[in-house]
Structure formats: C-alpha cells, structure tokens
Amino acid sequence: MSAYLTAANRLRIVKIEDIQQETPTVKSFTFKDDLCSKAKPGQFIMVWIPDVDEVPMSLSGISPHACSISVKKVGEATKTLHQRKIGDYIGIRGPFGNGFRIGKGKVMVVGGGTGTTALMPLVGSLVEENFKVTFLLGAKTKNELVSRDRIQALLPKVAGRIDVATEDGSCGSEGVITDLAEKYLNNEEFDMIYTCGPERMMYKMLLLSERFQTPLQASLERLMRCAIGICGTCVIGKFRVCRDGPVFTGEQLSKVKEEFGHFKRAFNGRKVKL
Ligand SMILES: Cc1cc2nc3c(=O)[nH]c(=O)nc-3n(C[C@H](O)[C@H](O)[C@H](O)COP(=O)(O)OP(=O)(O)OC[C@H]3O[C@@H](n4cnc5c(N)ncnc54)[C@H](O)[C@@H]3O)c2cc1C
Ligand code: FES
What we know:
It is a single chain. The protein has eight helices and 18 strands. The chain is of the alpha/beta class. It has a domain at 3-96: Elongation Factor Tu (Ef-tu), domain 3 (Beta Barrel). Strand 17 (263-265) and strand 18 (271-273) form a beta hairpin. The longest helix has 13 residues, at 199-211. It binds flavin-adenine dinucleotide and FE2/S2 (inorganic) cluster.
C-alpha cells in the first residue's frame, strides 16, 4: 500500500487531556490515540494547528492509555500550541519514521535541551528490559533541564544513573554535555550511545563514538512537510529524515558528514548553516 493511504497518514482529531509546564519554554500535551499508543520509541507525529501550520513532534510519552508530545515555543505554530487549553483539539498524523533500535548491554543516553523529551519512551523501554543506563542530561541553564525528575524516577529500577551539565554551571558540571560524555567514555566502555538534541551536539557525539568505537544512534530534525518520503523537504545527503530516520546510526551519519552538523535545508531547498 502506498505510504499516502496508510492508517497512520490519516488525519485524526484528538482532545488535549492534560498539559504540563516542563520548563519556562516547554509544555507537554497529553492525548489519546490508538496508533500512537503502539508507536516505537523515537517515532514522531505531524501536529496540525488549524489556520497556522502542521509541524513534526516526537512522541515524548507512549502508553496504552495516553501519549504525549513536549513542545518548545520557538515560532508561530509552537506559540499557538502553547496557548491551547485542556479540552481543546489538535489534528495528528503518524506515528512516522523508524524509531530507536534496542540492542543490549550497557548504554549511554545523551540528551540536549528539548531533544531530551524524545528520548523518554526509549529510556522507559531500556528500563523495562533491564539495561544498565547512564543518562547524561545537558542544557544551557538549570531552568531548561527537561524531564530530569522523570529520568531520576526511572533509573533506580535498573541501578542506572543520571549526570547533568549546564553551560552556565547553574546545575551539575559547568560546560557542554559532550565534555561530560567524553569523560565517561575515557573511563568506561559502553555498548551503545543514544542521543537527541542540537545537531552540533550530536555531531560531536558522532566524532566521540568513532574515536571510542562505540555504536551510535541519533535522532535528527529537518524541515518536514509530507512526513512519508514524497516531498523531499527533509533530505540530508542520500537520506530522507522522515522515511529513513529520524533515527540514524553512526555508520549512516558518517556518510553524510558534509551536511550533518553543518547545514540544514530551508523550505526552498537552499542550504542554511547550522
Ligand atoms: C522529527 C522531528 C521531531 C521533532 N520533535 C520536536 C519535539 O519533540 N519538540 C519540539 O519542540 N520540537 C520538535 N521538532 C521541531 C519542531 O518541529 C519545530 O520547532 C517546529 O516545526 C517550529 O514551528 P514554529 O512555527 O513554531 O516555528 P518557525 O517560526 O516555523 O521556526 C522556528 C524554527 O523551527 C524550525 N522549523 C520550522 N518548521 C519546521 C518543520 N516543519 N520541521 C522541522 N523544523 C521546523 C525552523 O527551521 C526554525 O529554526 C521536531 C522536528 C522534527 C523534524
Ligand atoms: S517530509 Fe516529505 S520527504 Fe520527508
């Protein structure tokens, strides 16, 4: 069946069941949807805000009873979403994309800024399957540390640990999260690194994964329109992020190093420096 005709690509209207203010700029919105409840960690949906836009959002919560997205206020669509109240309706399509592949062993999870929320369903699955998880959480400042309490509540179940870095030193180590990751990699071996966050951060994680010969999976963002591999808006090198990703392996990313971490594309296809 063509991707256009699948059940996932059908627009559904869902009610906002709950809203949580996570940080001064990030709100989580809970809704019920059968298809999203069966999504894989790392998959995303398209959220339609009538008269404004349709924008991609990772699922930050996946459960049989309810799902959520966590939205950072950056522009028109996300500002409008932030004004929505419990009981209002939004349109959704999806889930789309491949999601994270769960390997085995001892894993490092590196979340930067809002990207951390896309890692939450993954952490839930890793904990369920008894993985030893080291979660490195980074943000510019303490107020922007997303999902810290949720991670702290999950990890003791698997004797996991969380370590924090903020660029202004207001919480945890002072500096960028990749410096903290480098310290851990210098001292211990990991079977897999999972990461989501600003692309420059993920690029540094790719270089570290190559240096320490540790496999990597990273969740990418690109402009998106169709979300089903047709329009080409989301290309990076030979890949379409909506269809081949959004999660890519280190091996895949090393093939698109001229773009990854350096350029994204505008809606007119022109390269824009990151
Ligand atoms: C797979 C994927 C998952 C994402 N998950 C999340 C998430 O969980 N939480 C979250 O807050 N944000 C997420 N984003 C980014 C989010 O889609 C953009 O922040 C949002 O589209 C901005 O819309 P706007 O109208 O508010 O801002 P605009 O004024 O349109 O733009 C503000 C910034 O967002 C970028 N942007 C605009 N439109 C898009 C688009 N269609 N796709 C991607 N980026 C865009 C622009 O390059 C610009 O830098 C995700 C993006 C992708 C591709
Ligand atoms: S968004 Fe259209 S091909 Fe990916």
